[in-house]
Amino acid sequence: MSSSPTLHTPLTAGTLALANRVVMAPMTRNRADAAGVPTALMARYYAQRASAGLIITEGARISPTGHGPVGQPGLHTAAQIAGWAAVTEAVHQAGGRIVVQLAHHGRIAHPSLLPHGVRPLGPSAVTAASDARTTPDTLVPTVEPNAMSRVDISETLDDYAAAAEAALRAGFDGVELQGANGYLIHQFLSDNANQRTDAYGGSAENRIRFAVEAVRAVAGVVGAGRTALRLSPGSGYNDILELDPADSYGLLAERLGAGQGGESYAYLHVIEGPDPKLTRLLRERWSGALIVNPFTGDDPTDPATALARLDAGEADAVSFARLFAANPDLAERIRWGVAPAAPDPDTFHDGGATGYTDLARHDLVQKGPTHHE
Ligand SMILES: Cc1cc2nc3c(=O)[nH]c(=O)nc-3n(C[C@H](O)[C@H](O)[C@H](O)COP(=O)(O)O)c2cc1C
Q: What does the angle CA 159 – CA 164 – CA 165 come to, to the nearest 5 degrees?
């Protein structure tokens, strides 16, 4: 049988078995408690979306110094691990698969949320022209980070490994490293946030080093087949400049394409920019599963174009963020041809159940299909 897969064809990504190719992209929703502990409301939110082939959680910080916005969950204390265990249990009971996105905000972290108000860490002491969410309604400018010493780098790699171990204890099916959107790994990959003159800066080989080492540290704990990486090649988000993304990302895909310990990594997850050439390049250089988060400008991805990407062989699965915020039953809606509801950005970044767990499943989906596929 040589017909191309549909969004409902199962997919094996590394050692992860996905029932379909409709993936929930990571979304920071800032509803953890003050100690970064995932709540019962979050367990409900994720369980409601369990018909996705794979849920990728919002970014969870690997350490206190990697802190993102207020309300972000962590994965570095016993209470946080217990909170996540309730989330994974709820998702598994509902028949879903869930991986955690491990995040370190690097220079985008803000001192007001860091232990003892210390300055954030970054590859170099270069301030991002960006902002940090320090209260639900306040965005403040980011500050100059401390350039990471070699000891800081090796401690941060240890934090990735410790968070991976915590992910296993919390019952996650795998781990996705946040290498996109201008956070720490992306800062190392860039030409502007990274001004280092040691083995972590300068050439493409050096700028990809931290990403490769972080992936290896995580895979050393959970196994390559359960380890994935998210990238946003060429994206300027959070004040990132990349002069030749084809060069650095091509090299990164090649280095990681070999896998680890005789096993392929689970998947590469690409946030596509306006230039599809970079996705094609990664497709060529990366031998494992590729999840594409299509570029659509301000519009959420149309499921029809998502299917076209699979048909064209450009992706093995497609991820949706905002449509999953608005449609807990998105995978079923796509399956039964029910139009998705429009997202409400006002509920994205804070609030309680409103726009989070109070969204109805569509009637047709509730009753189940009455027609044949
Ligand atoms: C509210 C919100 C929070 C997000 N948080 C994250 C995050 O924690 N990690 C990440 O990698 N991307 C994050 N993203 C980016 C999305 O995963 C996705 O790449 C982007 O929204 C485009 O996909 P879409 O068109 O399907 O929404 C976030 C997006 C939104 C709208």
A: 100
Q: List residues near ligand 1 (CB under 6 A).
A: 25-28, 58-59, 101, 178, 180-181, 230, 271, 293, 296, 300-301, 320-323, 348
pLDDT at 367 exceeding the cut of 70: no
Which alpha helices (DSSP H) does the chain contain, by range? 40-48, 78-93, 150-169, 184-189, 204-207, 209-222, 245-257, 277-285, 303-311, 322-326, 330-335, 363-367
Q: Which amino acid is at 193?
A: A
Pairing of strands 174-179, 227-231: parallel
Token pair of 219 as six digits: 């895979």
Amino acid 335: pLDDT: 92
3-state secondary structure of 209: helix
Q: Return the best residue to mutate from 22, 23, 24, 27 for the ligand 1 pocket (most ligand atoms within 8 A of CB).
A: 27
Residue at 45: amino acid letter: Y
Note the pLDDT of residue 366.
64
Single out the residue of 263, 284, 277, 279 nearest to residue 215, CA to CA: 263
Mean pLDDT (whole number) for 222-226: 98
- Which pLDDT tens digit goes with each residue over 110-160? 999 999 989 999 999 999 999 999 998 899 999 999 999 999 999 999 999
Domains (range + CATH), the chain: 11-367 (3.20.20.70)
* Residue 342 buriedness (CB in 10 A; 0-12 / 13-18 / 19+): exposed
Structure token pair of residue 185 = 């790994």
At residue 331's C-alpha, the angle toward residues 328 and 337, to 5°, is 110
- Reported as half-sphere exposure (CB side, CA atoms, 13 A), residue 317 has a value of 32
Q: Are 151 and 145 in contact (CB under 8 A)?
A: no
Q: Is 183 a residue of the active site? A: yes
Asked if residue 239 lies in contact with residue 182, where contact means CB atoms within 8 angstroms, the answer is yes
Euclidean distance between CA atoms 190 and 30, whole angstroms: 27
